[in-house]
Amino acid sequence: MAQAKVLDGVAAAKVIRHEVSQAVAKLKNKPGLATVLVGEDPGSRSYVNGKHRDCSQVGINSIRIELPQNVSQTELLREIDDLNSSKDCSGFIVQLPLPSHIDTNRVLSAIDPDKDADGLHPINLGKLVLSQSGVIPCTPRAIVELLRKNEISLSGKEVVIIGRGTTVGRPLSLLLSSKGIDATVTILHSKSSDIRSHTKRADIVIAALGSAHFLTADMVKEGVVAIDVGITRTSEGLVGDIDPGVVKVASAIAPMPGGVGPMTRAMLLSNLLTLHKD
């Protein structure tokens, strides 16, 4: 079998940033994106830095809020309240994960749904459940857009998602099974039995559990489309959930890095345009 096609998220994101830039140029008032970063996690900091670079490239104003690892939940909620009322902020994100002493659900619920650029507020997730128009979580949307730009159909396909997290797995399952996308979706998790029997029959496997090289070539069928969303910091650097050997049997693969990550950042810019009131 020929080498798998690489789904290039960097190239696809560049196209989306250009489209966003053109849209921003037509606005009377520039949108403003704010990020809230708690602590010094290198991965989170790098990701936030990338978001601000993206804003600079497309003409969006950006606001940085950086708080220490030991910040109190009360202080964090105060910062969120300030952004909710700020006229300079069209939308914002709180970078996850948060320290263990912070109630993540309480923080996400405190964000004004009309400024929720990540699409993770309970109201926006509820709209996704009900198939109502609203902001779609960035990574699930990024996966769908990356497949669309590579002309990979989801309609009627057997899709297996490994991981049931609230930022990727759960909202992605809702999005993929919605009318108009029409995939048949199975979610696997730590209590799933015989994971290989599920992944082996899938047309598309999306690995989003954060376990280095978890998905191996013997777990998928020939011609599978493999999407790597997980990330693990190892002594060799950052690695994804998909073992390099999968490339020998897959028809297409979204690698980590360079696949879903750049598209997730591009979707954030697109979401911000949706939220912006000119």
UniProtKB/TrEMBL annotation:
<dbReference type="GO" id="GO:0005829">
    <property type="term" value="C:cytosol"/>
</dbReference>
<dbReference type="InterPro" id="IPR000672">
    <property type="entry name" value="THF_DH/CycHdrlase"/>
</dbReference>
<dbReference type="InterPro" id="IPR020630">
    <property type="entry name" value="THF_DH/CycHdrlase_cat_dom"/>
</dbReference>
<dbReference type="GO" id="GO:0004477">
    <property type="term" value="F:methenyltetrahydrofolate cyclohydrolase activity"/>
</dbReference>
<keyword id="KW-0560">Oxidoreductase</keyword>
<dbReference type="InterPro" id="IPR046346">
    <property type="entry name" value="Aminoacid_DH-like_N_sf"/>
</dbReference>
<keyword id="KW-0028">Amino-acid biosynthesis</keyword>
<dbReference type="GO" id="GO:0004488">
    <property type="term" value="F:methylenetetrahydrofolate dehydrogenase (NADP+) activity"/>
</dbReference>
<keyword id="KW-0521">NADP</keyword>
<dbReference type="GO" id="GO:0035999">
    <property type="term" value="P:tetrahydrofolate interconversion"/>
</dbReference>
<feature type="binding site">
    <location>
        <position position="231"/>
    </location>
    <ligand>
        <name>NADP(+)</name>
    </ligand>
</feature>
<keyword id="KW-0511">Multifunctional enzyme</keyword>
<dbReference type="GO" id="GO:0009086">
    <property type="term" value="P:methionine biosynthetic process"/>
</dbReference>
<keyword id="KW-0368">Histidine biosynthesis</keyword>
<comment type="function">
    <text>Catalyzes the oxidation of 5,10-methylenetetrahydrofolate to 5,10-methenyltetrahydrofolate and then the hydrolysis of 5,10-methenyltetrahydrofolate to 10-formyltetrahydrofolate.</text>
</comment>
<feature type="domain" description="Tetrahydrofolate dehydrogenase/cyclohydrolase NAD(P)-binding">
    <location>
        <begin position="137"/>
        <end position="277"/>
    </location>
</feature>
<comment type="pathway">
    <text>One-carbon metabolism; tetrahydrofolate interconversion.</text>
</comment>
<comment type="similarity">
    <text>Belongs to the tetrahydrofolate dehydrogenase/cyclohydrolase family.</text>
</comment>
<keyword id="KW-0658">Purine biosynthesis</keyword>
<keyword id="KW-0378">Hydrolase</keyword>
<dbReference type="GO" id="GO:0006164">
    <property type="term" value="P:purine nucleotide biosynthetic process"/>
</dbReference>
<feature type="binding site">
    <location>
        <begin position="163"/>
        <end position="165"/>
    </location>
    <ligand>
        <name>NADP(+)</name>
    </ligand>
</feature>
<comment type="subunit">
    <text>Homodimer.</text>
</comment>
<dbReference type="InterPro" id="IPR020867">
    <property type="entry name" value="THF_DH/CycHdrlase_CS"/>
</dbReference>
<dbReference type="InterPro" id="IPR036291">
    <property type="entry name" value="NAD(P)-bd_dom_sf"/>
</dbReference>
<keyword id="KW-0486">Methionine biosynthesis</keyword>
<feature type="domain" description="Tetrahydrofolate dehydrogenase/cyclohydrolase catalytic">
    <location>
        <begin position="7"/>
        <end position="118"/>
    </location>
</feature>
<keyword id="KW-0554">One-carbon metabolism</keyword>
<dbReference type="Pfam" id="PF00763">
    <property type="entry name" value="THF_DHG_CYH"/>
</dbReference>
<dbReference type="InterPro" id="IPR020631">
    <property type="entry name" value="THF_DH/CycHdrlase_NAD-bd_dom"/>
</dbReference>
<dbReference type="Pfam" id="PF02882">
    <property type="entry name" value="THF_DHG_CYH_C"/>
</dbReference>
<protein>
    <recommendedName>
        <fullName>Bifunctional protein FolD</fullName>
        <ecNumber>1.5.1.5</ecNumber>
        <ecNumber>3.5.4.9</ecNumber>
    </recommendedName>
</protein>
<dbReference type="GO" id="GO:0000105">
    <property type="term" value="P:L-histidine biosynthetic process"/>
</dbReference>
